[in-house]
Amino acid sequence: MSSVASRATPDDPRFAVRRMTPSDVETALDWAATEGWNPGLHDARAFLAADPQGFFLGTWDDAPIGCISAVAYDDAFGFIGLYIVRPEWRGKGFGMRLWNAGMAYLGTRNIGLDGVLAQQPNYRKSGFVLAYRNVRYQGVASTEDEPVDGVTIADAGSVPLERLLAYDTRMFACPRPLFLHAWLAQPPGDVRALVALEGDALRGFAAIRRCGSGHKIGPLFAHELRTARALYRALVAGVPGDAVFLDVPESNPAAVALALEHDMTSVFETARMYTRAAPDVPLANVFGVTTFELG
């Protein structure tokens, strides 16, 4: 630890909390990569689109030492993420100052987060209650892309955006049009989004994006396991031999089964917690979380 960090306290006027610039968000995601969270290459733009005011940076003499995101999706729901303090500045109260800034910004909304399991007691002190666990699975992409009878897999762009937004809203805690539009607008070579159709009915939606290491699938929403399987296989067939990651709600046994049947192994877990009742989301249709940072 540097001599400055060892003596620093969060009430020192040299410490300040301010909103992040786009460049700051890139820095925060670099820190997240160092922590092993493996963000997507273009996550910053989509994250900022969700709520440009919801990202806070802690600085010491204007140098960044910590961060947190507190995204207000609407007047009723928000999500905490990207909660990082640089190692040499930890254990001194700087993280709490950041936490308080994010929580104050979100106010009386129902707030969600995906926290490391060991931090659950601390989150409970702020009013968070465990809803379920999410499990990150890692595997290797194969070229197996077997069709499923009655299910047509198509590019997400073939469906009107309004229809896709309506489907996404049923699967998430609230509408998130700004985020979803930016999520799908990543460079074509770094993201691919697909839908599953049965006749005219939209039965699934999924995306895969390039990360610092391999590719992450998220979201992966589907009417049932066979549809999720068809979407998963179509996505990974485009990145054969690469590492792939899928963040699965443990409370959906079919999602766990999907990961295991493709020889994926558990590498990380989070506690999904909320300050109020868990949103009325059909977890049986959630086979892959969009992102731990923003839900």
Explain this structure.
This protein is an alpha+beta fold and 295 residues long. It has two domains: 128 residues, Aminopeptidase (3-Layer(aba) Sandwich), CATH 3.40.630; 153 residues, Aminopeptidase. It contains nine helices and 13 strands. The chain starts with a helix and ends in a 7-residue tail after the last strand. This is N-acetyltransferase GCN5. GO terms for molecular function: acyltransferase activity, transferring groups other than amino-acyl groups.
Which shape, going by the Cα principal axes?
Answer: globular
Low-confidence stretches: none
How much helical structure, as a percent, in the residues?
Answer: 25-40%
In the CATH hierarchy, the third-tier topology of the largest domain is known as Aminopeptidase
The whole-angstrom Rg is 19 Å
Largest sheet: 13 strands, mixed
Structural class: alpha+beta
Measured between the Cα atoms of the first and last residue, the distance is 33 Å
CATH class of the largest domain: Alpha Beta
Number of self-contained structural domains: 2
Annotation, overall tally of beta strands = 13
Quote the beta fraction: 25-35%
Pfam families: Acetyltransf_1, Acetyltransf_18
InterPro entries: Acyl/Acetyltrans_Enzymes (IPR052729), Acyl_CoA_acyltransferase (IPR016181), GNAT_dom (IPR000182), YitH/HolE_GNAT (IPR041496)
Protein name: N-acetyltransferase GCN5
Domain N-acetyltransferase: 15-149
